[in-house]
Write a structure and sequence with these properties.
Layout (H helix, E strand, L loop, with lengths): L25 E2 L2 E2 L1 E7 L5 H16 L3 E7 L1 H9 L6 E2 L9 H4 L1 H4 L3 E2 L5 E2 L10 H12 L3 H18 L18 E2 L15 E2 L6
Parallel strand pairs: 3-4, 3-5
Antiparallel strand pairs: 1-2, 6-7, 8-9
Helix pairs in contact: 5-6
InterPro entries: SBP_5 (IPR039424)
Organism: Streptomyces somaliensis (strain ATCC 33201 / DSM 40738 / JCM 12659 / KCTC 9044 / NCTC 11332 / NRRL B-12077 / IP 733)
GO molecular function: peptide transmembrane transporter activity
């Protein structure tokens, strides 16, 4: 298949498809061009590779990107945190407590007394009162199933707003000696330390 061509069943394809004569997307004769900010340092090669592939996929559907490579030390504070970007790549750690830990990432920005905007950790600046309410209710809910239902509702609304789009989960890599068992990458699971140990030595 074509890289980036996958879409869930029932999703309408862009009019004209890739390489359409319709040209780039735009409005009133002005093409849509998104500022794509990426760090330029030697430790960010993988991020730039992902960014280049995203730009190529967007180009196939008529969305232009202007990739701006900035110094690593300026990337987050001067661009992501300050909102000086249209597209940017960064990651958040996942936890087993989304009702409290994910709330500031999606909280609706509020105006401050000095005229600035309080965004907490919501650097996309996209949020709604309803999503805030769902997080607050989920954090206070004692019934686990009811809390999960509230978070599922919040999740659906966050996806609909599309302020940020999770692309992939980074793998957790743990090196373990061959004779060690039941140890490794646990994710959100609690390790059962009583099950961790060594294999029985082979009898010669």
């Amino acid at each position: 298949g074509v890289p980036g061509a996958y879409a869930p069943v029932g999703t309408a394809a862009p009019e004209g498809g890739p390489g359409s004569a319709a040209g780039p997307l735009g409005k009133d004769g002005r093409p849509l061009t998104l500022r794509f900010v990426l760090p330029s340092g030697p430790g960010s090669e993988s991020l730039r590779t992902v960014g280049g592939r995203i730009a190529a996929m967007l180009d196939r559907i008529g969305v232009r990107t202007e990739i701006r490579k900035v110094p690593d030390e300026d990337f987050f504070e001067d661009h992501v945190a300050s909102g000086e970007y249209d597209l940017a790549l960064y990651s958040w750690p996942g936890t087993a407590f989304p009702a409290t830990d994910a709330r500031p990432i999606h909280a609706k920005p509020e105006p401050a007394a000095d005229g600035s905007l309080l965004v907490e950790q919501n650097y996309t600046r996209v949020g709604t009162d309803r999503v805030d309410q769902l997080f607050e209710r989920a954090a206070a809910e004692l019934d686990e199933e009811a809390a999960r239902d509230l978070l599922r509702d919040a999740d659906a609304r966050i996806w609909a707003a599309a302020g940020s789009i999770p692309l992939f989960q980074r793998p957790e890599l743990v090196a373990v000696r061959r004779n060690v068992v039941n140890a490794g990458a646990f994710g959100f699971a609690t390790p059962r330390y009583e099950d961790i140990g060594f294999t029985a030595p082979k009898k010669g």
